[in-house]
Specification:
This protein is 35% helix and 22% strand. By secondary structure, it is of the alpha+beta class. The chain has three domains: 242 residues, Nucleotidyltransferase, domain 5 (2-Layer Sandwich), CATH 3.30.420.40; 140 residues, ATPase, nucleotide binding domain (Nucleotidyltransferase, domain 5), CATH 3.30.420.40; 79 residues, no CATH class. Helix 14 crosses helix 15. The N terminus and C terminus are likely disordered. It is an enzyme of class 2 (transferase).
Length: 502
């Protein structure tokens, strides 16, 4: 299905400064797993990554809700940093800094003594559903959007905070900021993640204090803002003891919302491009230099989130590979363990034009019984989905590709910009069926890769802060191109949108 692999070389002005002994530690945590990686940067090879430690992540039922097992998560982070320090020492290298990126919106509450007052809730918990109407009674959706430009999702941070029974004497630290605090003792809120809270002014780049007041939230509920590339602090003595890192190792703010780091590593040139950060969720959009705060944009449920270097990630959340991974989990429990490549090959052999679902329906947010829920959603459309894994997988892939196409068409309409190419980064860039279906659904060429865009964007921001890389996003992206094999998928001529071939 793919149309070959191409590797490009960065131009001579890409800006890398050779420092073979300098390495960077990237903590990259998603909703189902995390990694600690070592990153190296050079003009010749771009950004290279070495995975040092992988660990699982997931929600647990605790104290009447779905929460993150944060103590276990942070213990794995420390274990990974200790392993990274050992590897670097063995290579004669020096870890100069650590960058942290995770998913958005969730937080932990920390009291004045620096203690976590409870286990952080997961956005998959239903507690914020009941607060949406109360928030909108205090601030209308139209007013919220005109300031924040944020897509409505019932689990956005402001709805979660509205569900908290008591916020006296605590601060909310978003998950990457909470990890940074436990490493350094310093409280900061990184700006790209702050922009996902629903309490951030998209134009001013500051907290929307009028909304904090309207919702009865303390003005200091969040720590002060910090920008990507700025230093959070140095490591606490206890962290130095547990990890073996040197005392001058710093924690540097990166695009701590993982999508911000991923978009920074999109291997685009000067063309007008669209991007899809495809993983547990799919983030589909374009890069702008200013937010779009129109009523039409609000009704289309697009979001304006901060990117690296003051850019705007104008995008919409679309369902993602969570649907597939949950189906695989359900099938494995039933004893069906066909490997994913074979499963995708079987799905690709099925004819186009099959049934589809709305992949970003909130009904698919919670775990468990995903194949049954997908078949039920298909029945609600009047169609029938065969009870075969390949058929369910093809339905997911067709639905995601159609959702991508609709979202990109809306983005072009709402911004008045046309795009000539679609970049897919993240785990979904390895899914050849999804990439080809996306090319067919959008009618545009798709360039797939890098898989590790988030970690590479994380490392690039650290490298620039350390002076190993110079330049803006164009120069950073040229380094990604230098070290990445990219696959290109062309429109095959059989365009399929919403289940109808044309």
């Amino acid at each position: 299905m793919n149309n070959g692999t191409t590797a490009s070389t960065a131009p001579a002005h890409a800006g890398a400064v050779s420092d073979q002994n300098t390495v960077f530690a990237a903590i990259d945590i998603g909703a189902s797993s995390g990694r600690v990686m070592l990153g190296r940067v050079s003009a010749a090879s771009g950004v290279s990554l070495e995975t040092i430690h992988r660990f699982p992540n997931g929600v647990v039922e605790l104290d009447g809700g779905l929460r993150w097992d944060f103590d276990a998560l942070f213990a794995e982070v420390l274990k990974g940093l200790a392993a990274a320090a050992a590897v670097a020492r063995g290579n004669g290298e020096r870890i100069v800094s650590i960058g942290i990126d995770t998913w958005a919106v969730d937080y932990g509450l920390v009291n004045d003594a620096g203690d976590l007052t409870s286990v952080p809730f997961s956005y998959r918990d239903e507690r914020s559903r009941a607060t949406v109407q109360r928030v909108h009674s205090a601030i209308s959706p139209e007013t919220l959007y005109a300031t924040t430009g944020l897509q409505f999702l019932q689990f956005n941070t402001l709805y979660q905070l509205a569900a908290e029974p008591d916020l006296d004497g605590v601060q909310a630290l978003l998950i990457p900021d909470l990890i940074a605090f436990l490493l350094t003792g310093e409280r900061r809120t990184e700006a790209t993640n702050a922009s996902t809270t629903g309490l951030f002014d998209a134009v001013a780049g500051e907290w929307a204090t009028e909304f904090l007041d309207a919702l009865g939230l303390p003005r200091n509920i969040f720590p002060e803002l910090i920008q990507p590339g700025e230093t959070v602090g140095t490591l606490l003595p206890s962290v130095l003891e547990q990890t073996g890192l040197s005392a001058d190792t710093t924690v540097v703010a990166v695009g701590s919302h993982d999508t911000a780091s991923a978009v920074a590593a999109v291997p685009a040139g000067l063309e007008d491009f669209a991007y899809i950060s495809s993983g547990t969720w799919s983030l589909v959009g374009v890069e702008l230099d200013r937010p779009v705060l129109t009523e039409a944009s609000r009704k289309a449920n697009f979001t304006n989130e901060r990117g690296v270097d003051g850019t705007i990630r104008y995008l919409r959340n679309v369902g993602g590979l969570w649907l597939l991974s949950e189906c695989q989990r359900a099938w494995a429990a039933e004893g069906y363990t066909q490997a994913l490549p074979a499963l995708l090959e079987s799905a690709a052999a099925l004819p186009a034009g099959g049934p589809q679902i709305n992949a970003d329906d909130p009904a698919f947010t919670a775990p468990d019984n995903m194949p049954d829920r997908i078949r039920a959603a298909v029945r609600n459309t009047g169609a029938v989905l065969p009870d075969r894994p390949a058929a369910v997988v093809r339905c997911i892939m067709d639905s995601l590709a159609a959702g991508y196409a609709r979202t990109l068409a809306d983005a072009e309409r709402l911004t008045g910009r046309s795009t000539s190419v679609v970049h897919i980064v993240g785990g979904g860039s390895q899914n050849r069926l999804l990439c080809q279906l996306t090319a067919d659904a959008t009618g545009k060429p798709v360039i797939a890769g890098p898989v590790e865009a988030t970690a590479q964007g994380n490392v690039l921001m650290q490298a620039r802060a350390a002076g190993v890389v110079a330049g803006g996003l164009a120069e950073l992206r040229a380094l990604i191109v230098a070290g990445t094999s990219l696959e290109r998928y062309e429109f095959s001529g059989a365009r399929v949108v919403s289940g109808v071939s044309s």
